[in-house]
């Protein structure tokens, strides 16, 4: 055999493999199961970005239409030009609507595929889980699985839609600077007013999300145990005990939910008010520029419309921040379940 050997090759694994002797101290790097499944169709996200590009460019038609009407049509009283511009902006609006609905459809398709993959993995793991690692309550496990939909929806639909619009914030800022000059400072000053409150409420929202999920799990556990052991409850005359436990859990869950809704409502309301303030300040500063002759009336109207468009992506980010902690807590619970 030695005469037939032409060479010797030694193979080793490219990645570190698990080892029970040291895994309790430090484990080799492993990709997160959730992100691996949720972002498996990442190539389709490029389609979403392309559709968002077309939709956001078409969204500029309203600004251009307003500028042309106030600066050219009204002074010259040209009805023919007015109708041509009106027809063009209506076509742009129709195509913008189609593009945005197409983005929704693509996001839903990608989200559906991710949902099927994640649900399959979680259910398969639940069937193969060891007896010692099983949940002590069926109801709490059901509540945990139910949160899977909210996590998937936020990650693959809401967040992707917000991120796909975010790059165009810089484009709109540049166009606003080209048209309105110093008016762009109004929008830039509004950025921290939109983002900082969303970051500040993350800690209290995280605490409330943990409490809310815990109470939801207890409520589901109580309900399932009561339904499964209804005959034993009647036999032991424990109806009042379960009723009191149910009422107390509902009361705590309702209080936690009310605090969560108050914080998220405060954040969303603040976002809307900042948008209104930006619109008003742009008009205020723009009026002085028009009076001094540094800006036309059409440019003022166009920049006011564009300022609202520029703030819109940041408003979506605020909406994501208001729901991020709930999804984060739910995903952490699923990660703990999948590691058993």
UniProtKB/TrEMBL annotation:
- Pfam families of this UniProt entry? ABC_membrane
Keyword Zinc attributed: no
| Localization annotation | Cell membrane
User: Transmembrane stretches, by residue range?
Assistant: 48-70, 82-102
Q: Which UniProt keywords apply?
A: Membrane, Transmembrane, Transmembrane helix
Topological category with respect to the lipid bilayer? Multi-pass membrane protein
Residue ranges of domain ABC transmembrane type-1 in the record: 48-326
What is the predominant subcellular site recorded for this chain?
A: membrane
One MF term in GO for this entry?
A: ABC-type oligopeptide transporter activity
Q: Which superkingdom?
A: Bacteria
Q: Which InterPro entries match?
A: ABC1_TM_dom, ABC1_TM_sf, Type_1_exporter
One cellular component (GO) term of this entry: plasma membrane
Classification via PANTHER family:
ATP-BINDING CASSETTE SUB-FAMILY B MEMBER 10, MITOCHONDRIAL, ATP-DEPENDENT PERMEASE MDL1, MITOCHONDRIAL
- This chain's protein is named Type I secretion system permease/ATPase
Organism name: Enterobacter hormaechei
């Amino acid at each position: 055999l030695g005469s037939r050997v032409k060479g010797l090759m030694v193979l080793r694994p490219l990645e570190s493999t698990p080892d029970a002797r040291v895994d309790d101290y430090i484990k080799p790097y492993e990709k997160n199961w959730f992100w691996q499944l949720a972002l498996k169709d990442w190539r389709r996200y490029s389609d979403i970005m392309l559709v968002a590009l077309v939709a956001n460019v078409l969204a500029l038609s309203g600004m251009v239409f307003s500028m042309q009407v106030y600066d050219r049509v009204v002074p010259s009283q040209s009805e023919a030009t007015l109708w041509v511009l009106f027809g063009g902006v209506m076509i742009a609006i129709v195509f913008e609507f189609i593009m945005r609905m197409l983005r929704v459809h693509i996001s839903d398709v990608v989200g559906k595929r991710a949902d099927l993959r994640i649900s399959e993995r979680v259910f398969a793991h639940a069937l193969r889980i060891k007896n010692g690692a099983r949940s002590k309550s069926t109801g709490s496990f059901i509540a945990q699985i139910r949160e899977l939909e909210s996590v998937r929806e936020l990650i693959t639909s809401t967040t992707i839609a917000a991120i796909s619009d975010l790059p165009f914030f810089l484009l709109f800022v540049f166009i606003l600077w080209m048209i309105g000059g110093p008016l762009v400072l109004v929008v830039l000053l509004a950025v921290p007013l939109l983002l900082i409150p969303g970051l500040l409420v993350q800690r209290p929202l995280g605490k409330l999300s943990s409490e809310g999920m815990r109470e939801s799990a207890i409520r589901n556990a109580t309900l399932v145990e009561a339904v499964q052991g209804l005959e034993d409850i009647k036999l032991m005359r424990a109806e009042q005990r379960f009723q009191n436990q149910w009422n107390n859990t509902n009361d705590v869950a309702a209080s936690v939910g009310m605090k969560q809704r108050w914080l998220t409502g405060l954040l969303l309301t603040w976002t809307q008010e900042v948008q209104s303030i930006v619109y008003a300040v742009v008009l205020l500063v723009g009026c002085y520029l028009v009076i001094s002759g540094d800006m036309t009336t059409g440019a003022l109207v166009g920049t006011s419309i564009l300022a609202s468009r520029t703030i819109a992506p940041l408003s979506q980010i605020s909406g994501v921040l208001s729901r991020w902690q709930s999804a984060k807590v739910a995903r952490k619970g699923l990660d703990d379940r999948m590691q058993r």
